[in-house]
Amino acid sequence: MAHVVFVALGSRGDVQPLAVLASAVADVDAVAQVSLVSHSELQKLTEEPEVWSSKVLWRPLAQPCFVHDGRLNADTPDVLDLQGRRRAEWIEAIGRAGDADVLVCNLFAMPPVFHLAERLKIPWICCSPSLIPYSMPETFEQELTENMPDLMEVLKKRDEPGDESLFSWSTVKSWMWPVFTESHAILREEFLGLPPVPGDRAGDGHDHFAPETLKGAQFLLGIPAALIPASVTLPPAAVVCGAWSPAEDRARKQPKALVEFLAQCEEEVAKGQLTGPPFYIGFGSMGAEGLVPDAEKVLKVFLDTAKWMARPVVLMQHTLAQVDPTPRFVFCCSEDVPHGWKPSCAPRCADGSDLCRSALARLFPQCSVVIHHGGIGTVLAAARVGRPQLVVPLAFDQPFWGQTLEDLGVAAVQELEELSVPLVARKLRALLTPSVQRSVEDLAAQLNDESPPIARAVQEIAALAATVEGAGAGGAGREVLRPVHRIELCEDAEGEAEELSVLGRSSGEVQFIFREIAEEHSYGELSKLPGDSIVVDGGMNLGLFSLVLAKRWRGTGQLTVVAFEPAEETYHLALQNLRHHGVPLVAHGAEFGDRDDAVVEGAEFGDAPVVVHCFRLALCDVEREDRLCYFPYLTSSSTLQQHRAAKDLAKERGCFDPRLVQTGSNGLPAMKVSKIADMKADAMS
């Protein structure tokens, strides 16, 4: 029986459908265990019984749903990750899913799942609740053909009739092409120990490919067929299942204040004070992250339009901007209100009869128009209950959904850059016409008539789980990371080559840091350091800096190196490397200060030219504890020369404590070393 691990990244709209699927798969006989890996901020999904089953194990990620600097770039998909912003998320996801027998992902989790499945030699499947929001660059095919002709020949041959391979050129150009980009190569080689290019023959050293390692996956689409235009090209053999939406929670209580507000609105409509039901305004999790430009201005336009049209408003203010004071006939929600809820305590009319008990079955049917950002979750919720939509797209696939709905005659698109009260009012009036209402009702009938979409997806996942011989615990004990091994270097000092070897996981990482120190002199000419100096190594890593320093420095007196490395594994590897080469050291561990039991290892203290004090701590301006992201394979260190421009840009954006980047008179970062000097004096005495 298999352990099926779902990995779902992105916003709530991207993750919730896979949570629904995971809960359904947990009841399959061929499955021993189901886990879901996703962002910790979405843990509230586990508290919603219509979404979550207690049989599913929640595995949170520290990385947030959105990694941004307050701006959106719809032209660069997260799966490409040109800036490396998502790599920490991918690495953490790999660590949380490494015990899987079967992997299931959404589109934004495709990168780590594809590479991990290859590393573990296990099957995987992509269940996407959205269409592919990116397209292959025009030059990609030509560049791949020129640089990797053997690979291209294999991929195109798999497109011939009769070949049932899931990894073909059609697969690559429709949705898998990002795995051949540089950012993915770094993840594969430096973290998982895989060849940098999928299909490459590891250790071969030549541009030959092993086609048998190119393992594709079934692509399941969690979107109703009625919403997919004929012009859209789907991946080969894609299965259109329909939306994986949660069942309505009949036991959930409705917000009492909202019910009372809706009742008041109906009374005011009857009196002629209002012209109709309210507008719903909400911009989802992207809005909650502050990704709506000029949010206060946007909100003012919508509220002014509603006031002009004498319409009430139900506002998800946490997704746009705060309203203070709250205008009359505006109901502000500070957190998400479910699109569906049961009116078990609906207020009663003056005559004692129930107030529209059947009509209050959900929130959206009580609204005249749904104004939102175009997220697929809101699109489906509004379409299913026959409500017209005004879509104000922000990024990603939202412009596509806005245009698709507009083409179906059930919505209008409003660009943020063209917002004005007269324009918005004109579009809202057009959406309230009988012809649009007929269109939205026809679409709702099609969507509600579809066969159970969850059953088809569960069937595909269960069939995949039945093909593996899992241990129930997901193959616990498998090594996901490349194992620690000895890496050979050639240390060239003054024309004399000398062999140097260190323990580490990634030869690429070791070679990179070694070149920085020994060849490019990114940290200065180490041989020219004056005697009796104190050298602060802010990131000891594997101890390479101290190793090179110990071999090259031949001054008078003694150098005291104070080295900091917070990652436990890296710290202990550094100690082993220093001991292996006979460099005197003091292993302080996670304590900073005077120690009666401090012992210098490796040589007589007085005769040693270099002594390294090693601390399993991070260098900081104050004493505190913080979370550590550990990247055992990534070249995450920066230099004074090669990356100066990038560091200056980061400084301008406020990434660094100014006390650590302002330079002193000698051109070096101004740092207090009095405590270190006292520690050295105590040790010498």
TrEMBL record:
<dbReference type="InterPro" id="IPR050426">
    <property type="entry name" value="Glycosyltransferase_28"/>
</dbReference>
<dbReference type="Pfam" id="PF06722">
    <property type="entry name" value="EryCIII-like_C"/>
</dbReference>
<dbReference type="InterPro" id="IPR010610">
    <property type="entry name" value="EryCIII-like_C"/>
</dbReference>
<feature type="domain" description="Erythromycin biosynthesis protein CIII-like C-terminal">
    <location>
        <begin position="360"/>
        <end position="439"/>
    </location>
</feature>
<dbReference type="InterPro" id="IPR029063">
    <property type="entry name" value="SAM-dependent_MTases_sf"/>
</dbReference>
<protein>
    <recommendedName>
        <fullName>Erythromycin biosynthesis protein CIII-like C-terminal domain-containing protein</fullName>
    </recommendedName>
</protein>
